[in-house]
UniProtKB/TrEMBL annotation, chain A:
GO molecular function: double-stranded DNA binding; RNA binding
PCI domain span: 209-392
Pfam families: TPR_PSMD3_N
Protein name: PCI domain-containing protein
Family: Belongs to the CSN12 family.
Signal peptide: none
A GO biological process held by the record: post-transcriptional tethering of RNA polymerase II gene DNA at nuclear periphery
Domain of life: Eukaryota
Cross-referenced InterPro entries: Csn12-like, PCI_dom, TPR_PSMD3_N, WH-like_DNA-bd_sf
Record-linked PANTHER family: PCI DOMAIN-CONTAINING PROTEIN 2, UNCHARACTERIZED PROTEASOME COMPONENT REGION PCI-CONTAINING
Organism phylogeny: Eukaryota, Fungi, Fungi incertae sedis, Mucoromycota, Glomeromycotina
Gene Ontology CC, one term: transcription export complex 2
UniProtKB/TrEMBL annotation, chain B:
Gene3D superfamilies registered for this protein in UniProt: 1.25.40.990
Origin species: Glomus cerebriforme
Domain of life: Eukaryota
Biased composition (Polar residues): 17-29
Protein name (database record): Nuclear export factor
Cellular component, GO annotation: nucleus
PROSITE patterns xref list: PCI
Length: 406, 421
């Protein structure tokens, strides 16, 4: 593509408010980019500047010039410079965008996406040269600004940039998680809460799913498991079947939240999602069989990978559920008599390979009573567990509304 | 679909049925799904990932090829996966990739020990030196930790000439006069002098003041070596002994930086303190990050093993073990645990009062919750308004006591982080 064609196309796109058209023309990865780059690298820079000012209306001309600078930097294979030029480009763009309506959204998404890509490559460059990678962190701040651009638009809803809010929020979350600054996400959540927005369900499904997923992860990090579960279930339901990776990602966090409530995924679900099955299968089986020792072995084996996913601490909490399963077995094998000597539990644990002291057994049972997993009380004098006549082992979470999932 | 813990067998799914997830998958591919794999293969896969967790993507790609080949040969089950060599990606030390992966983990202190060869070590040393001579660097550690602002103005490193052992701390507002700064030779004597003084007088205000000026002299002269580490470690331990978490945190922050520059010290001991501290603040992501930082070698160290066990006993509400660990905490660990021992005692009492009926022997409470004697135990119950429910035979009316103990427990929800960075 030569410059004349470029300028013509650009002008026509902005006059017709063609967001997708502008998006392509300002993208550094589009089909025309390589060819255009080679053309502009052969033009005298002063002439290029003059032509741009002449043929592109203000204030878009500044934006286009900056775009050229990015292309040229990429051409030199200097991604750090490219990122810096793109940073300048994004600043100009935000200024522009604050006066434009909904049609500009595709361009906003693309620019934020590309600034992230370039920041990533720029960080590689910095690391290779023994510097600290700080571009992505900086890019995250710009992406946050992109979100602000959307949420602060007061124009009438049909043409408002507010329709970009959830995409940008999700994208910002994703970036903040990548740079391990997930604590900065709360500001975005707060803004969303106070602003007057269309309901989440009115936004495109992909926006919803990404947003719900990351919101769930934030809640998960704060150990607000019930709320996290709601988000993950909603995200899972709205995520289409063919997006297997995304489904598995959601499950990666949903399963631990279920496990600590004692909710086990069905065999169908596990068969459909092999990565999840591989990761959490051993735990699920250990809980089903009340085999505490196998649960601990699985914890040891999967520790590294669970820690990298930040789900280790949560899965560990589910160990108690496996102990409960075991204790329930003891109750059943004991003919469901309501008075059980604690020694029997001690033996049961030993039987599955867990050698603990009697005192620890007392605490296990006591904790389960406190949590409501067992209904009854402990008699210190007799060292007995006295179970309630009705429902001594209440089923945990089976009939929970979110228990049915496609 | 998910169900609860029912015993109904679910209908088997035919892997070759058209009802599969991705319509693009053909039946033979479906068979390569995890479900159909032999145990030894699953184990092989697991071992491959464990061998190089930083290189998961490359390993995954290689594994896919390996498995696809075997599948095509019809040898998935026939192969002895215990004998197959791990994928090359497990051992390939692609320096650039490793370095990128490590630094892009965006952890506050990337684990430089993963970078193996000499050249990297030299580059690292170069960086450390750069921090020392860079006049724009506030200080080698977090800027806010050391309160001295004068480093910016120095474009040469001063050497002190002061010969006095003791010196009170004065916050500097400009470049210091060398005659008031003690050279390293003197500072070494000061440290020994202060250690003796601490044992003798136990005057914390004096000691803290002296240590701060000692640290200041080191900072001003840009001395960053084993001696510096020893100073911070000593001050940290003394601060712990007196329960001064603010001062302890300042030292811990500096030590983290110094260890990161590979200056030798009691790294394990202080790593263990970090973990115990995070248990006190109950900051889950900090705990998770710290666990992620631990190498296998570190996990074998006694102090770290102890801290890890404390963590897991708390996570599983195994109070019996928890209080046992409190009693045998290594180094200064017990002083750190002191800060959350009351909170955990209440949590443990909540469990006991909920579970036991009608009465519970106080002797059990005493021994489980690590009270020195029955008096201390009763005193504790009194502090939390449960004294009226102690029976003459030294048992506790658990149902009545529960309400008050639970109320006390609610007060421990929020934790003051006391200057932690």
């Amino acid at each position: 593509m030569n410059t004349k064609t470029y300028f013509d196309s650009f002008q026509s796109c902005i006059s017709s408010e063609d967001g997708d058209g502008v998006k392509v023309l300002l993208s550094t990865a589009a089909a025309h980019a390589k060819d255009l780059t080679s053309k502009i690298s052969q033009i005298n820079p002063k002439k290029l500047e003059a032509d741009t000012h002449r043929l592109i209306e203000s204030p878009w001309d500044e934006l286009v010039l900056q775009y050229f600078k990015v292309l040229l930097a990429i051409n030199k294979n200097n991604y750090y410079e490219a990122y810096r030029e793109h940073y300048n480009m994004i600043i100009i763009f935000f200024r522009l965008a604050s006066n434009l309506s909904r049609w500009i959204l595709p361009v906003l998404y693309m620019i934020c996406w590309e600034t992230r890509e370039l920041a990533d490559k720029a960080d590689d460059y910095l690391i290779d040269n023994d510097e600290d990678p700080k571009c992505l962190e900086e890019a995250a701040r710009n992406i946050n600004k992109g979100f602000s651009t959307c949420i602060t638009d007061r124009s009438p809803l049909s043409t408002s940039r507010k329709w970009g809010v959830y995409y940008m929020a999700g994208f910002a979350f994703k970036t903040y998680f990548k740079v391990k600054k997930s604590n900065l996400c709360t500001n975005i959540l707060r803004s969303i809460k106070v602003q007057d927005l269309p309901s989440l369900g009115q936004y495109p499904k992909p926006h919803q799913v990404t947003f719900l997923y990351y919101h769930g992860r934030l809640l998960f990090l704060e150990a607000a498991y019930q709320q996290a579960e709601e988000k993950f279930v909603a995200a899972f339901r709205r995520c289409p079947r063919y997006e297997n990776t995304n489904k598995e990602l959601i499950l990666r966090y949903l399963i631990p939240v279920w496990l600590i409530r004692g909710v086990l995924p069905s065999r169908e679900l596990l068969e459909r999602y092999p990565a999840t099955n591989e990761l959490y299968g051993p735990f699920i089986n250990a809980i089903k069989n009340g085999n505490v020792k196998k649960f601990e072995e699985a914890l040891l084996q999967k520790e590294k990978i669970l820690v990298s996913y930040e789900t280790f601490l949560t899965v560990e909490l589910a160990r108690e559920i496996s102990i409960r399963s075991l204790f329930k077995k003891v109750y059943i094998l004991n003919d469901r008599v309501s008075r059980i000597p604690l020694e029997k539990f001690h033996k049961a644990l030993k039987f599955v390979g867990l050698n603990v002291e009697m005192a620890e057994v007392i605490w296990f049972v006591a904790e389960m009573i406190r949590k409501g997993f067992i209904r009854g009380y402990l008699s210190y004098q007799k060292m007995f567990l006295v179970l309630s006549e009705i429902n001594p082992f209440p089923p945990i979470g089976v009939n929970h509304p979110s228990a049915i999932i496609e | 679909m998910i169900r609860g813990n029912t015993n109904k067998p679910s209908p088997k799914i035919n892997p070759l049925s058209p009802k599969s997830d991705s319509s693009t998958q053909n039946p033979s591919e479906k068979q390569s799904e995890n479900r159909e794999w032999p145990e030894s293969l699953k184990d092989y896969v697991q071992r491959s990932f464990n061998a190089a967790p930083h290189n998961i993507d490359a390993i995954e790609n290689e594994l896919k090829k390996i498995i696809a080949t075997k599948l095509a040969e019809g040898a998935l089950y026939q192969t002895d996966w215990t004998k197959v060599e791990l994928p090359k990606s497990c051992s390939a030390i692609n320096e650039k990739d490793i370095k990128r992966k490590i630094f892009k983990s965006y952890s506050r202190s990337p684990d430089r020990s993963l970078i193996e060869n000499d050249r990297e070590f030299q580059k690292r040393e170069k960086r450390a030196k750069r921090f020392q001579t860079d006049k724009n660097a506030k200080s080698w550690g977090s800027p806010s930790a050391e309160n001295d602002p004068m480093i910016n103005d120095l474009d040469y490193t001063i050497v002190g000439t002061c010969q006095k052992l003791e010196k009170s701390y004065l916050r500097l507002t400009s470049a210091p006069d060398p005659s008031t700064v003690r050279p390293k030779r003197i500072l070494k004597k000061t440290l020994e002098f202060l250690k003796e003084k601490w044992v003798k007088d136990q005057n914390y205000t004096y000691i803290c003041d002296q240590f701060k000026s000692l640290r200041q002299d080191l900072t001003v002269q840009r001395i960053q070596d084993e001696f510096t580490v020893r100073v911070y470690e000593t001050h940290a331990r003394i601060a712990l002994e007196k329960g001064d978490l603010g001062e302890y945190n300042q030292c811990q922050t500096q030590l983290k930086e110094l260890y990161r520059l590979n200056i030798p010290g009691h790294v394990m001991e202080f790593m263990a303190y970090r973990l115990l501290y995070f248990l006190y603040t109950r900051n889950r992501s900090d705990i998770n990050s710290l666990i992620a930082e631990l190498t296998d070698e570190m996990k074998r160290d006694n102090s770290i093993k102890h801290a890890l066990e404390v963590r897991s006993t708390l996570a599983t509400a195994n109070y019996h073990k928890f209080f046992e660990l409190f009693l045998k905490a290594p180094n200064m660990g017990a002083y750190l645990m002191d800060h959350f021992i009351e909170r955990e005692r209440i949590a443990a009492l909540v469990v006991l009062c909920k579970a036991f009926r009608p009465n519970l022997d106080l002797e059990f409470v005493r021994s489980e919750l690590a009270f020195n004697d029955l008096e201390e135990c009763k005193e504790f119950l009194n502090t939390h308004n449960a004294a009226p429910f102690i029976n003459p035979d030294n048992t506790l009316k658990t149902k009545d006591a529960y309400r008050y103990i639970e109320a006390s427990g609610k007060k421990f929800e929020k934790v003051d982080i006391k200057g932690q960075i």
